Amino acid sequence: MLARILPRLRGAAPLLGPGDDAAMIAAPGGAFVITVDTLVENQDFRLHWPSGFESSGFDVGWKSAAQNLSDINAMGAYATAAVISLTLPHSTPVRWVEELAEGFSAAVRELGALDCSIAGGDLGRGSEVSITAAVTGALPTGKPILRSGAKPSDIVAVNGVLGVAAAGLALLDSTLPAADWTEAEAGIVQGQRRPKPPLHAGPEAARAGATAMMDLSDGLLKDGQRMATASGANVCIERGALLNDIERLEPISNALGCDPLPWVLAGGEDHGLLATFPAEADLPPGFRPVGVVQALEPGESNPKVYFDGLAQGASIGYDHFEG
Ligand SMILES: [Mg+2]
What we know:
Elements: H1 2-5, E1 23-27, E2 30-40, H2 57-74, E3 78-88, H3 94-110, E4 117-125, E5 130-138, E6 155-159, H4 164-172, H5 183-193, H6 201-207, E7 212-215, H7 220-231, E8 234-237, H8 243-256, H9 261-266, E9 273-277, E10 287-294, E11 305-307, E12 310-311
Parallel strand pairs: 3-4, 8-11
Antiparallel strand pairs: 1-2, 2-5, 3-5, 6-9, 6-10, 7-9, 8-10, 11-12
Bound molecules: magnesium ion.
Magnesium ion is lined by residues 21, 71, 74, 215, 217.
Organism: Paeniglutamicibacter kerguelensis
Binding site for Mg(2+) 5: 218
Binding site for Mg(2+) 2: 37, 71
């Protein structure tokens, strides 16, 4: 769809156009980054879940802020302003909308986006709830970190949890009644409802010499594939580096009778960071190695993501137009 839309969009050229987590725009005295994201009821979130759980406006507002702030973080930037556009059915309770505003502000504050003003927005009516936020960011190093900079022999590193949001989604979607969830299960669901992108880690990674970076919005393998494609090198992930992530989710997968590995490898919406660093670099706090970047094999033309030495297929992770 993007390949059809983008050639038809003609305006002044940005400093950095589509293809990364945010675009970079020239401004007098420098440049800034900008991103936009939409959450639509029954597509990106649900108000009523099979488990009996009800999503609050606070949760939806939090998630909208978190996913936009995460895209700014992924560029090595910090957020400076947000504008929000809301589409609401006539039946939406006013209190739900107040909670949405409170959730958005709470995420900005509690995730530590202390320079981010909430500068305005738009309000309209529609058949379902839809929230769109655009966020701008400033680049402390003056230079964004792109998806395309990974080099052979770089360390592949991750900051933040893997698979928690997907495990939480599985619980919300299950028939295990929300009223009976254990404290651990409720905690995992909290990770899905209110993801916590590590907002200082993006600028820190930029200062530490990250060669490529993106946020983990659609799962480690799918996002790793995007980084591999953009960089023209293979991104190789090792299972041994993910044992703690797998173990953390085992109580949930045991309760639901499934395998936790697909959550860790392909679960979206955790909004941690995937970054690469030169082999000799000291990883900044919060980053842990999960693999290495390798040059394409002789005769290999398409960069791939590998898991334990096996090339992964194209249908991995979460796709917005699937299903
Ligand atoms: Mg992103």
